[in-house]
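[job 0412] stage=complex_fold ligand=magnesium ion status=START
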Amino acid sequence: MPHITVVLNQKGGIGKSMIAMQLAAVYAETLSAEGDPEVAVVSIDPQSTSVDWAERIEKAGRVVPFRVIEASGNIGNLRKLRRAKASIIVIDTPGFLPLGEDGESIDPLGDGPVGDALRAVLDIADDVIVPLEPDPAGFKPTRTTIERVIKPRGLPYGVVVSNWEPRDGRLDLERTQSMVRKQGWELYRSDIRHFRMHARALEEGRVCTQYMSNHTATKAKQDFLGLALEHQLRRQKQAAL
Ligand SMILES: Nc1ncnc2c1ncn2[C@@H]1O[C@H](COP(=O)(O)OP(=O)(O)OP(=O)(O)O)[C@@H](O)[C@H]1O
Ligand SMILES: [Mg+2]
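[job 0412] stage=complex_fold status=DONE, emitting structure tokens
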């Protein structure tokens, strides 16, 4: 049975697709034999960033090292993912409308097709990764995501500080992490730094395991390897509970 991880944050443009694709890449490098993908990214985002990304990898003459499945128009089949022949499935989700921020009775996922797809994947999820950039605008949507969507479902989750700029020092990272701790939210110790290489990866048709080999690329990939390791250790800890 696959382990299903949903990458979720109400806010758009916060690194969900980046984390879904790069995490899948490092898992695939570790797990997959050629022609037998053990890892899949499933997209329920009508914007289909991860599907476009996979197409660019192929156009660049490379092989996508994991399966990428478009499922935004196919909610009925999502339940079948539980029986899929894969070890790890990472689900890339769209941002969702800030509905009912203050109305307790309103489901913040909304009642449209995006909300239906999000509910369907959360029903089959084993855990949730919540990316958060060091930008105050991300705070409120992250709170809605954790307090009103994840916690009521009792899903294990962790916030990952993503896309922070190391050239500006560690202040942004530390501030964001301390804000997360103050809220009493689960925080990943791993974080994802901003690298130009990542920003260009989709356009160039590569995932981090396909970057040119140099010092910067090694550092850039390292963040996702660290995240993958922590993800698995958390999973082990969870299983022992
Ligand atoms: N660590 C990083 N380094 C450099 N660029 C990054 C990093 N993480 C994300 N980005 C860039 O930030 C932008 C938003 O990232 P991404 O598409 O992953 O966000 P998203 O949450 O999936 O957005 P959406 O809600 O629109 O699906 C993209 O242009 C992406 O290339
Ligand atoms: Mg996305």
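The chain has a mean pLDDT of 93.
[job 0412] exit 0
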